Task: inverse folding
């Protein structure tokens, strides 16, 4: 009997000790991303989380991979069911790939639904399927216009008077005449010129049930407008093909172009890669289309998701909500990344007005521009064929318009036909 | 006890049979056979099966007949075929002739310091293609201030948007490949040239043959096996080229200028997550390369019996 009691006590002690040790040891997790900037945000939020007494301590291993490598690795890990991380950043254009078949990601509905009214839901709908939200975005990605005021002033143009795309085109002609510099660049190798313009105009590539919209009149009209600017030299093909190349940054930094139309998150590209334009750049709303459309377009994004098979999935979800859906998390997102957060409550708050490198660079109330357009940003339709549509825009639509200057109607028809042949 | 001794006999018999002259050859080739079956045959068979399937994840695949092959009738794939075909053609022409001429010059002793030039031509093949690709991409940039465009302007030509159009893009690609692989092909040719007995040239000399006649009637026939080998691997390399185009154009391929068949397969398989269609692309490439290689080998008389 004594022996039995001794054994019982020893076992209890060992288990108790193990449990006590386990409680103190932080929970280890892995996070994959392709954007190093995001790890700064997560690191800061993890420190804040660990400082709170009632939360289990976290020790997240942040692994940064090149864009394609990371998505390939994730595809293989989710398909084979092995080697996936606990948390992962998935780029918006790739997200639909992971919503096919058995979905390997965990829905975040219990954190999203209670605060639905406070969030810009059109962002989260991009990462949803059948009413379940699988990804949390960090920003709205509202497209805005960045003006180089030095060039505009030299040409005697006041950017605040530019209200419509026609005004923009007219201003472009003055700038070209007075300074010999183009007003804007159109990308020939990526979708960041064509898609925001079409989307703001009221168009898109697909309907939710995968009907192709690429050859609608609104797309043709948008392309025709872009071509008219190319034809008179107020717009030129982007050096390097798109606005994320060393060539473009160096050229733009040299003061060679009056404007660029990009999503809000491009703020950070200016501060990082075009330091000579500090104090000269101003952010403004996109010009409007005379025949309708919207005030802006939401572009780009990263849906951070929790892998469903992770042993710590519940905890990972709680941390993700803490980092991206709370007031503090969203303010930190702005401060570190320069993003326009998806929680509407933060706009107008004192915390968002604290000086930082972005206010210093642009020297204006950036959020006034944003709140102007926030109520009228159209949804984008991201079905499982969206990656295919984007690829067609990159390789054919933008290229044929900007480099080859072909007929907009013909381009739109060919691209639509190509997309249909890939769907059927 | 009895059982144990029985076990021993079996084992001994096993050892004896392994050293049996009839068995030994199989033992020696076994590693290759095993490797071949698992690393080449198994994926090949799986690719054939997958090319008839729609794959939406590990547990979601269904047979869809020839649908994947029908989907190859798109502008995208045709552009990839054109790009690969154009590249392979120029690749074979340039990478067969240029190294052969250089090898002949180096071998003939016409040029001084041939040892120095041999290593100079060979060094690029030791560099990383990604690094070389970045240097080429920046040198052949779209701006007028890019290195090559400055050179063009200095020579009185118009600046060119090298990587934006099919023609110049292909030129840069061939230049990169030539820079990189020239040295390797020179080594192949030199080994062939060095094996030609000098008597042949002497005999030709006595018969009054000119330098050109010697080249066409002595050198070329003698290095035919090397020539066949070089052309075969160049055709194969030309159609399966991927890294060079990725290094020059990265993930963006405006106008499909730099998207090869393998690039297309990669994009379909991983970026669009459609492994079934990617398998069909892969098999099409296999059939294409085998067909082109067979035609080339027949034309060059590879299957002709030596007289």
Result:
């Amino acid at each position: 009997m004594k022996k039995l009691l001794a054994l019982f006590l020893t076992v209890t002690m060992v288990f108790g000790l193990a449990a006590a040790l386990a409680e103190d040891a932080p929970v280890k997790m892995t996070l994959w991303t392709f954007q190093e900037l995001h790890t700064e945000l997560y690191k800061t939020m993890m420190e804040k989380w660990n400082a709170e007494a009632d939360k289990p301590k976290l020790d997240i291993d942040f692994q940064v991979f090149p864009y394609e490598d990371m998505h390939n690795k994730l595809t293989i890990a989710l398909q084979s069911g092995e080697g996936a991380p606990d948390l992962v950043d998935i780029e918006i254009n790739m997200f639909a790939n992971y919503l096919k078949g058995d979905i390997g990601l965990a829905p975040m509905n219990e954190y999203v639904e209670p605060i639905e009214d406070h969030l810009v839901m059109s962002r989260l709908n991009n990462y949803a399927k059948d009413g379940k939200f699988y990804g949390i975005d960090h920003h709205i990605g509202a497209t805005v216009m960045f003006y180089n005021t030095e060039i505009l002033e030299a040409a005697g143009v006041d950017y605040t008077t530019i209200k419509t795309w026609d005004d923009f085109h007219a201003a472009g002609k003055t700038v070209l005449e007075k300074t010999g510099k183009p007003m804007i660049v159109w990308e020939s190798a990526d979708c960041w010129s064509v898609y925001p313009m079409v989307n703001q105009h009221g168009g898109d590539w697909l309907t939710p049930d995968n009907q192709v919209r690429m050859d609608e009149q609104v797309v043709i009209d948008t392309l025709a407008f872009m071509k008219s600017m190319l034809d008179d030299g107020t717009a030129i093909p982007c050096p390097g093909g798109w606005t994320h190349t060393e060539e473009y940054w160096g050229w733009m930094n040299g003061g060679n172009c009056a404007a660029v139309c990009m999503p809000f998150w491009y703020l950070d590209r200016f501060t990082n890669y075009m330091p000579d334009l500090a104090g000269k750049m101003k952010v403004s709303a996109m010009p409007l289309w005379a025949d309708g459309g919207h005030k802006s377009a939401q572009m780009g994004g990263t849906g951070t998701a929790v892998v469903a098979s992770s042993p710590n999935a519940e905890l990972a979800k709680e941390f993700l909500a803490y980092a991206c859906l709370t007031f503090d998390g969203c303010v930190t997102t702005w401060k570190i990344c320069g993003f326009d957060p998806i929680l509407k409550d933060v706009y107008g708050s004192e915390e968002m007005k604290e000086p930082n490198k972005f206010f210093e660079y642009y020297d204006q109330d950036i959020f006034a521009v944003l709140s102007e357009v926030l109520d009228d940003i159209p949804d984008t339709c991201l079905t499982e064929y969206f990656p295919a549509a984007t690829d067609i825009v990159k390789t054919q639509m933008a290229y044929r318009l900007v480099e080859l200057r072909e007929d907009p109607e013909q381009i739109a028809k060919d691209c639509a036909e190509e997309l249909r042949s890939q769907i059927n | 006890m009895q059982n144990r001794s029985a076990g021993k006999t079996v084992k001994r018999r096993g050892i004896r049979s392994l050293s049996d002259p009839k068995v030994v050859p199989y033992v020696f080739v076994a590693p290759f056979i095993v490797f071949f079956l698992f690393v080449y045959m198994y994926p090949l068979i799986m690719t054939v099966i997958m090319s008839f399937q729609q794959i939406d994840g590990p547990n979601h695949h269904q047979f869809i007949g020839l649908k994947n092959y029908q989907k190859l009738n798109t502008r995208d794939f045709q552009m990839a075929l054109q790009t690969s075909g154009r590249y392979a053609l120029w690749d074979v022409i340039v990478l067969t002739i240029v190294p052969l001429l250089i090898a002949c010059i180096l071998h003939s002793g016409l040029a001084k310091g041939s040892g120095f030039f041999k290593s100079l031509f060979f060094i690029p093949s030791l560099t990383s293609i990604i690094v070389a690709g970045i240097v080429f991409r920046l040198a052949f940039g779209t701006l007028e201030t890019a290195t090559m465009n400055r050179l063009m302007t200095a020579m009185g030509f118009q600046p060119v948007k090298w990587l934006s159009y099919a023609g110049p893009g292909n030129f840069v690609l061939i230049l990169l490949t030539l820079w990189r692989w020239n040295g390797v092909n020179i080594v192949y040719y030199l080994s062939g040239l060095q094996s030609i007995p000098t008597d042949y040239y002497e005999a030709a000399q006595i018969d009054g043959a000119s330098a050109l006649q010697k080249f066409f009637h002595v050198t070329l026939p003698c290095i035919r096996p090397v020539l066949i080998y070089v052309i075969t691997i160049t055709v194969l390399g030309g159609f399966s080229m991927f890294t060079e185009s990725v290094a020059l154009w990265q993930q963006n391929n405006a106008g499909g200028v730099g998207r090869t068949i393998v690039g297309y397969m990669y994009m379909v398989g991983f970026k669009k997550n459609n492994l079934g269609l990617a398998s069909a692309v892969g098999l099409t490439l296999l059939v294409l390369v085998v067909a082109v290689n067979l035609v080339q080998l027949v034309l060059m008389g590879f299957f002709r019996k030596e007289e």
User: Anything to note?
Assistant: Chain B is about 70% helix and 0% strand. The CA atoms of residues 15 and 255 of chain B lie 63 Å apart. Chain B has one domain: 74-299.
